[in-house]
Amino acid sequence: MVLQPSERHHRDWSHRRLGPWCSPTGSPAPLSCETGCGEGSWILVCRLLVPTQVSLLSMEEDIDTRKINNSFLRDHSYATEADIISTVEFNHTGELLATGDKGGRVVIFQREQESKNQVHRRGEYNVYSTFQSHEPEFDYLKSLEIEEKINKIRWLPQQNAAYFLLSTNDKTVKLWKVSERDKRPEGYNLKDEEGRLRDPATITTLRVPVLRPMDLMVEATPRRVFANAHTYHINSISVNSDYETYMSADDLRINLWNFEITNQSFNIVDIKPANMEELTEVITAAEFHPHHCNSFVYSSSKGTIRLCDMRASALCDRHSKFFEEPEDPSNRSFFSEIISSISDVKFSHSGRYIMTRDYLTVKVWDLNMENRPIETYQVHDYLRSKLCSLYENDCIFDKFECVWNGSDSVIMTGSYNNFFRMFDRNTKRDVTLEASRENSKPRAILKPRKVCVGGKRRKDEISVDSLDFSKKILHTAWHPSENIIAVAATNNLYIFQDKVN
Amino acid sequence: MGTMFARGLKRKSAEDGEDVEGGLAGAQAMPSYSLQRQSLLDMSLVKLQLCHMLVEPNLCRSVLIANTVRQIQEEMAQDGTWRVVAPQAAGRAPLDRLVSTDILCRSVREQEGERPGPDAGDGHTPDLVPGLATVPSAQALRSPQSSLWEVDSSRENRGGFQKSLDQIFETLENKTSGSVEELFADVDSPYYDLDAVLTGMVGSTQSGHGSGLQAFSSATAPPPSSSCRSDLGELDHAVEILVET
Fold this sequence. Notes:
Chain B: It holds the Pfam family SERTA. Chain B: It comes from Zalophus californianus (California sealion). Chain B: Keywords: Cell cycle, Cell division. The structure holds two protein chains of two kinds. Chain A has helices at 30-33, 53-61, 65-69, 336-340, 387-392, and strands at 42-49, 85-90, 96-101, 105-111, 125-132, 137-139, 144-146, 152-155, 163-168, 173-186, 210-226, 236-239, 245-249, 253-258, 266-270, 283-288, 295-300, 305-309, 321-323, 344-347, 353-357, 361-366, 375-378, 402-404, 410-414, 419-424, 430-434, 451-452, 462-463, 475-478, 484-489, 492-498. Chain A is mainly β. Mean pLDDT of chain A is 85; it is low at 1-40 and 53-78. Chain B has a domain at 31-81. Chain B is elongated and about 75 Å long. Chain B starts with 11 loop residues before the first helix and ends with a helix.
């Protein structure tokens, strides 16, 4: 791909913040004109190792968590499978970053505050709170385990001092409240300082308890548990723009919940056939429209997207819009359907577009055009000739996610060998970067990577056969307004930022 | 999991010779395609069986694999090659044919030249898009067991990998139903008919389910505001279901 030299390369936009969104046909966002997909523009801010169960105890004693986060000398061998990150999500301001892992834990990172003394530390994220969200369960009727792996985390918009998030495993959604406590009451009449009851006979005076400052403590409490509503595995949750409801989607059904009511949910989509033997299609992802609280989309394993309007009927089995790209007959193979299965669907911040990820491509659709996407980006087309092997080792079923940047001008998704890709929708430039321990020096500039397809391999290129398919970037997140990204690679969380920032 | 393909070498010319001798009816031109398609079918069936592990199988993956199996079956039925795989020819197939099958990954246009031609003996006009062939379901959907019997007969000729394959085929044999579709019958066990009951029952956690069960529910039912004791609530449901039925 020929890279066009950017005329606006020297524009200084460091003082500007990205607007909420802008139309791709309008003026490009700063990212697209300057550094987003250019060479040498992304730097590593920090690499965070999700603390293992073993080290959690010591972490509570260690006040300076920065020491642990920046300690690249941590022995990788202590990481267990429970530490594999399974979801990453920034909150609405970007101040907090939540990760969920296979062991059912949620770890929340908080951005380092700006300080005059250490200007360069801004942008680093440190551990803010850790809690066990879900536990492994056993379904006695089916004699099957229910995994505690966190499939998705979604933040609620902040309405008071506390933070709220939804986390879900295969079966149960939980609403967690994360709040800070920096004062505690002292001077109770009936209890002494340790909390023991005092002998009433010894109480001679009455006093009013006062609040005294204490060391900051962050506590997470489960406020709601939404259980027993899903027969199949939950793959998505999405908070509605009314902030009163949210939806949870499993393979065959989508339920609508009210945050206040845990013992009931409305079933709004049901694609389960009367006879399960006729099952040929499942729901793979779902999301509410960012502004219209009555609209949502869901994607399927056959590569289709349906837009539904909840005002039309109680059960939204009939879609308002149906998005499907006609198949290219010349590319047809036994794996066509599998690679067309959509693994993720995301509305743009503007609400005008949706982005879908299937095995080999990322597509951008205009909500007003159902018959084909407006943009298609090849993520790793060199895998097209290897589909059979990828089917054999199950990699073809990997579910990659995709994300928009704050202004909807750049999209990002992961690949194998710890590669992740960014596509600039305006300049049509793209870049492949790698999240690896070798590049783990702080502030190290990421070098673009390239996969060699043909015969002759250049010095820095890597050949397709050398790719490590066990290292996959399935989960990434983009800060809502700045050029800061979080990339999850197994049990490592990499935070990169645009160096101009 | 560094390099994972390029293990299976293309041995088209050698295969041609062997298989023409084996006399696959109606498949003069490129039997390697048929054999590799067969191996993809075998691989898919193995994958469907391996789904039944301790954790509930991934439904999306199962559906996609089952659809692939159906596609292959439809195409094989159309070719007329469905019952044709001769045990001897299958036995001679090297083990690593199960591995890399690049031919199958090629697009239809490339495969066109390899598929059995119109004069292959059954008067069948090759489809431009073989996978999309619409065949009446009664004709197209054969039980995968029929292919298993053929593969099984050559069991002794294969290597160690075949052992685990055999165990899986035996499990499949022991199933009362043979069709791919009924693999989902497992997913939809009678318990799933209770899901409507469950979701309806969730609302009645606190009120109990008839006075007879009050003893159970009052003992273990969590107070409405205590949201963390969901495990007790679920156990409660399980008990109520068992007692109910």
